[in-house]
Amino acid sequence: QVHLVESGGGLVQPGDSLRLSCVISGFTVSANLMSWFRQVPGKEREFVAYINWRGTTTYADAVQGRFTISRDTFKSTVYLQMNSLRPEDTAVYYCGAGGSRYSANYWGQGTQVTVSS
């Protein structure tokens, strides 16, 4: 059974940084695509970043240059380092396993990120 648990969200001020973590069980991180999506109330879940089995990363235009996705295959953990946070980054962030940049096959429960002064 695949299980994903996100952590690291919180309330920060504009310009601050946060690092989200996603611990995965029942799924081989090194052999699959792992992703981060985010969602605000009333809107569809949107792609943020992914890292594939080769370690290649791809980002949404809105976060390019500010966010970095990485993985630790020994810990079966995926990270999202978020720098220079903006109010428009406020959302629930979801870790995804498998799938593509359009959706994931498995999801975590989400972690809230709020950027506000």
Quick structural gist:
The protein has 117 residues and is an all-beta fold. It has no helices and 11 strands. The termini are far apart.
Write structural notes for this entry:
The strands form two sheets. Strands 2, 4, 5, 6, 9, 10 and 11 form a seven-stranded mixed sheet that branches. The termini are far apart. It contains no helices and eleven strands. The chain has 117 residues and is mainly β. The protein is 0% helix and 49% strand. The relative contact order is 0.31.
Topology as H/E string? Answer: EEEEEEEEEEE
Oligomer: single chain
Ends: how far apart? 40 Å
Contiguous low-pLDDT stretches (5 residues minimum) are none
How much strand content do the residues show? over 45%
For the sheet with most strands, the description reads:
7 strands, mixed
The helical percent reads under 10%
What's the total count of β strands? 11
Q: How many H/I helices? A: 0
> What structural class do you assign from the helix and strand content?
mainly beta
Report mean pLDDT, rounded to a whole number.
96
CA-based gyration radius: 13 Å
Shape: globular
Walk me through the topology.
Elements: E1 3-7, E2 10-12, E3 18-25, E4 34-39, E5 46-51, E6 57-59, E7 67-72, E8 77-82, E9 91-97, E10 106-107, E11 111-115
Parallel strand pairs: 2-11
Antiparallel strand pairs: 1-3, 3-8, 4-5, 4-9, 5-6, 7-8, 9-10, 9-11
Describe the structure using short key phrases:
0% helix; four-stranded antiparallel β-sheet; 117 residues; 11 strands; single chain; seven-stranded mixed β-sheet; mainly beta
